[in-house]
Design goal:
Layout lengths: L4 H13 L5 H18 L47 H65 L27
Length: 179
């Protein structure tokens, strides 16, 4: 749509005077207003609706009252409320005891951990000693067998009485020989 230059200049001048920044938007709104006036007329348009109205009236009548009875109702609610009275000194003592017990628990837990580590290392030592005993036992058995073999083959003479009297002990023992 083409707007005549003179009208466009007037609109621009009007927008400048009224500090309107968006000229195109202003032109569209003015066209809409003008079209609405042309379409609906110059006066405000209102549709008339028939409304039914209900009116309530208050009627005051005097009625003789012979006796007015007042009833008072008393409601008693029993509320059980527990109130704890504390002794600050006792609370302080209990807090100190609690801290002390917590420290003891921590100490005992550390001791348990240390003992577990010690037991683990002792178990390792026990196992190594068992192996050592087994090895020594096997060696002793072998030596005894070798000794027995040597004695049977007369490579080693039988043990002699150390005391030389054939009455005393055997190999330094104070026990008598069994005959």
């Amino acid at each position: 749509m083409k707007v005549p230059k003179k009208l466009k200049d007037e609109i621009k001048l009007f927008c400048d005077l009224n500090k309107i920044k968006d000229i195109d938007k202003f032109i569209v709104s003015v066209i809409q207003i003008g079209f609405n006036i042309e379409k609906y007329g110059n006066a405000p348009w209102r549709q008339e609706i028939e409304v039914e109205k209900i009116v309530e009236k208050e009627v005051i009548k005097e009625v003789p009252v012979e006796k007015i009875v007042e009833i008072e109702k008393e409601v008693i609610k029993e509320i059980e409320k527990k109130v704890f009275i504390t002794d600050d000194e006792k609370v302080g003592e209990l807090m100190e005891e609690l801290d002390h017990l917590r420290e003891r628990i921590t100490t005992k837990e550390q001791e348990i951990i240390n003992n577990a580590h010690n037991m683990k290392s002792l178990n390792g030592e026990i196992e190594s000693k068992k192996k050592e005993i087994t090895n020594l036992s096997n060696q002793l058995e072998k030596v005894n067998k070798d000794l027995e073999t040597m004695q049977k083959e007369d490579i080693i003479p039988p043990p002699v009485d150390l005391y030389g009297d054939d009455k005393g002990g055997w190999w330094g023992s104070n026990l008598l020989k069994k005959k």
